Amino acid sequence: MASQNIYILGIESSCDDTAASVMHNGRILSNIVANQKIHEEYGGVVPELASRAHQQNIVPVVAQALKKANITKDQLHAIAFTRGPGLMGSLLVGTSFAKSLAYGLDIPLIDVNHMQGHILAHFIDEDGFEKPPFPFLAMTISGGHTQIVMVDNYFDMTVIGETIDDAVGEAFDKSGKILGLGYPAGPEIDKRAKLGNPKAFKFTKPKVDGLNFSFSGLKTAILYFIQNETKANPNFIEENLNDICASIQYTIIGILIDKLKLASKQTGIKHIAIGGGVSANSGIRQALKDGEQKFGWTTYVPKFEFTTDNAAMIAIVGHLKYLDGEFAEQNVAASARLKI
Fold it and tell me: Quick one: pLDDT at residue 40?
């Protein structure tokens, strides 16, 4: 990507994962993530607990990233960090740490939009993974976000569709909660969906104009469906769990693919890239592959470790901004609702 020798440290702390990554000329040397298991017992992320855990984790995580990359902090050329969007308390920990470290080392500070990170993760130099050509459509799907973005260049992006209520990851997790599954429920639903019949139960897809999404109505429909069925048969969930999971997943994937089809048709763009934690879902990956046959798409899915929240995606944005000389001032502030 560049002939110079550029080492970037990426720091990600937007939600409940504390992550640090060292990148050398577009290639990842280390990608360390400290997960916070504490949230599982609450069935969702508790912001106050998340920020406290970040404070405990950030120094050891950064130290480990440098150690694994086999470099010292004095070899770094810049510090890239997630400025937003995300949980304010969590963002503040990463932001203040990055600012202090950059100031202490007297090197540039680079602020990164978390959503751009998910999209530009496709540009990490990784053997066996192709990079999408411009322009392409990026669908970012996670616990907190559902967006379709038209990407004309690294930093020329337009959100053309987004959720008007819940994110897709939330739809998986809340459906899982209704079924008595643990948190996060997405991977468990995915696993069980492979064993079930996706057309066993029919859920109505919400009608939303244009390229926007809605998942709150679906969630309510699933809740009422389960309440009615368990009233008639108290063992309904355990007797039909795989079929219920398959039907929920089939409906959610249908909603995503319908909007992607429309976006591709409207823009004439057939290069489709996905990112975000929910892109790990095997059903979504399969539906995208099918889209290559059905609609003539070329699809791009990043390496699994670059789909969930991670610092490698922050480091690649830092690398690209470094090449452009686009640096942040020391007074840069975290922003919970930062837009692309």
Answer: 60
CA triple 247-184-114, angle to 5 deg:
105
Where helices occur in the chain by DSSP H, the ranges are 47-69, 88-105, 114-120, 168-178, 186-193, 216-232, 236-267, 282-295, 312-324
Q: Are residues 152 and 283 in the same domain?
A: yes
307 touches 172 (CB < 8 A): no
Q: What is the largest CA-CA distance in the chain?
A: 68
Q: For residue 1, what pLDDT band results from cuts at 50, 70 and 90?
A: very low
Q: Is 190 annotated among the ligand-binding residues?
A: yes
Query: So what's the pLDDT on residue 44?
Result: 63
- Answer yes or no: do 42 and 143 share one domain: no
Residue 169 marked in a binding site: no
Q: Are residues 115 and 24 in the same domain?
A: yes
- 48-65 pLDDT, tens digit per residue, is 677 787 788 999 999 999
281 has binding-site annotation:
yes
Please indicate, yes or no, whether residues 166 and 295 belong to a single structural domain of this protein.
Answer: yes
Same domain membership, residue 250 and residue 227: yes
Contact residues for 37 (Cβ-Cβ < 8 A; gap 6+): none
Give the type of residue at 132: P
The answer to the question of whether 141 is labelled as a binding residue is yes
Residue 143 marked in a binding site: yes
114 is in an annotated binding site: yes
pLDDT at residue 36, rounded to an integer: 55
If asked whether residues 79 and 38 sit together in one domain, one would say: yes
Residue 221's domain comprises 136-301
Question: What's the pLDDT at 149?
Answer: 98
Query: Residues 54, 153: one domain?
Result: no
